[in-house]
Design goal:
alpha/beta; 6-stranded mixed β-sheet; 6 strands
Length: about 280
């Protein structure tokens, strides 16, 4: 399948405009991802000498990793095959038109036993806003329109690593709750962090004010916290995978065990009673 044949979830031009308007002071999701990467790299306890970072915010990540090669998160990544021992895919896979294809590209770009760390927004992200907008639009306009990008659940996202051919795949979640004075402040903050609507099939005209007002009321009624503010969930999914290498642990072939489980458990092994089948 070529880029022209691929379903276009994201309007890349709109995404670029959104990111260009982002404000450095509002990039707390990028900060959170960078902290998560750092924690995992400390646990790995390995020195990486050739690092690439796939990102839509090059200035932010270049400051964090000045010796890294910064790669734009285009559908086709400008990665050199077999060149890196660490690739950080930083908070942009949820906008990819072909997320599996991007992961495959990163695997090919890694040296054997190279590490991929990927941070992206998961399916619980902004579930409060999604529910409020959907209910408001159904009430006011009698229908729904695409407003928030669909984001994968942790189980499905972990399976993407296996489909892309990574060894020792791991997926875990780092949920983050932020609070805002109201839903309008949340939507304004999404614009400042460059994460507002860039769906290809979004409605191109401005949303009716009464839809947004109704959504803000629904949001406040259902998601108000003890401080009389509203909560917003951001679920950061962390994917970890290794480029296959002969030095990695390999599963044993079925029937190749040299000792019996019963001996290890110091118990008696009983034959299966087939008479009850």
């Amino acid at each position: 399948m070529t880029d022209m044949d691929m379903p276009q979830l994201t309007d890349r031009a709109a995404l670029s405009r959104n990111r260009a308007r982002a404000e450095p002071s509002a990039l707390f999701l990028q900060e959170q991802a960078a902290d998560e990467f750092q924690e995992r790299l400390i646990e790995v306890n390995r020195t990486f000498t050739s690092i690439a970072i796939v990102t839509g915010f090059p200035d932010f990540w270049a400051k964090r990793y000045p010796d890294a090669t910064i790669i734009a998160d285009d559908d086709t990544l400008d990665l050199q095959q077999g060149s890196y021992d660490l690739i950080l895919h930083a908070m942009c896979l949820h906008w990819a038109n072909d997320p599996v294809g991007q992961l495959v590209q990163t695997r090919h770009a890694l040296k054997p036993d190279g590490l991929l760390l990927c941070a992206l927004l998961g399916g619980q992200t902004l579930h409060e806003l999604r529910a409020s907008l959907a209910e408001a639009e159904a009430v006011v306009a009698g229908g729904l329109s695409p407003r928030i990008a669909p984001m994968g659940e942790i189980r499905d996202l972990g399976a993407l690593l296996q489909r892309a051919g990574f060894a020792l795949p791991v997926a875990d979640s780092a949920p983050l709750t932020a609070s805002y004075a109201n839903a309008f402040h949340l939507m304004h903050d999404l614009r400042k962090m460059g994460e507002n609507n860039a769906l290809n099939h979004r409605i191109k005209h401005a949303t009716q004010r009464n839809i947004l007002t109704e959504a803000a009321c629904i949001y406040a009624d259902n998601f108000r916290n003890a401080e009389n503010r509203v909560d917003a969930t951001f679920e950061i999914i962390m994917l970890t995978g290794w480029a296959p290498a002969e030095s990695q642990p390999q599963p044993l072939r079925p029937g190749s065990a040299k000792s019996r489980l019963a001996d290890a458990l110091n118990t008696q092994e009983l034959p299966l009673d087939r008479s009850k089948d």
